[in-house]
Design a protein that fits this description.
By secondary structure, the chain is of the alpha/beta class. 39% of the residues lie in helices and 24% in strands. β3 and β4 form a beta hairpin.
Length: 223
């Protein structure tokens, strides 16, 4: 039997077993819409929605709960002061992974939770970006007192004064076990009163294991 006939019969045999497609080796990508309550995908090589969403929920809820007393008291009195205005400056990634489009999503999730809580009245991000552009400052420079005064003055000129500045930072730490590893993700929210300098901070942590094989995952479960 010559080589060409041998290869032909081999490929036909593989196709019959479902191991080879005559149309080529490239598989066809599929997708589905997840309904509410359906389990989401878990990132196999990096963090995804299964990691970032719980971090945002926990950190924001704990931070705002400590400041909700004044708002609840004011709600009993129609003449009470309005919610304090907060300027959410940015989300900074100091972790080992690239956040890609999740960085923007985390910003929007935190901002939405602040709006829904009614504990603070957030400033529109468009005004925040305009103020940074006008002053030529980066968000990580706002904690320098002189820069803070410059930025708050610019925001007041735009009719957007605020009492609190908030900053979010994502960090990570990795523990290796041969080729398997565990990564601990930490989302930290820092908030400072720009008038008094009073500082507050809240963090949420989530750990995730990455395994090179299903067998490795099972071995860790029974360790």
């Amino acid at each position: 039997m010559d080589r060409r006939r041998f290869l032909g019969k081999t490929l036909l045999g593989l196709a019959g077993l479902g191991l080879f497609s005559p149309a080529g080796c490239r598989s066809k990508q599929t997708a589905e819409v997840l309904k509410p309550g359906d389990p989401g995908m878990v990132g196999s090589h990096a963090a995804g929605g299964e990691t970032y969403k719980p971090l945002v929920e926990a950190a924001v809820a704990n931070l705002l709960s400590r400041h909700s007393g004044g708002v609840q008291q004011a709600s009993l009195n129609q003449q009470g002061p309005p919610p304090l205005r907060i300027c959410f400056a940015a989300v900074e990634n100091k972790g080992v992974e690239e956040m890609r489009d999740f960085k923007e999503q985390i910003y929007q999730q935190i901002d939405t939770r602040i709006v829904q809580s009614q504990v603070f009245q957030p400033i529109s991000r468009r005004f925040v970006e305009a103020g940074l552009h006008q002053t030529g400052l980066r968000p990580d420079n706002l904690f320098i007192p002189e820069n803070m005064r410059t930025f708050t003055a610019a925001m007041e000129q735009m009719g957007q004064p605020f009492e609190y500045l908030m900053y979010a930072t994502l960090t990570s730490g990795t523990t290796h076990d041969n080729k398997d590893y565990q990564r601990d993700y930490l989302l930290t929210l820092e908030m400072v009163n720009v008038r008094t300098g009073q500082y507050d901070k809240e963090s949420a942590q989530l750990s995730k294991g990455y395994n090179v094989s299903a067998g490795a995952k099972l071995s860790h479960m029974f360790d």
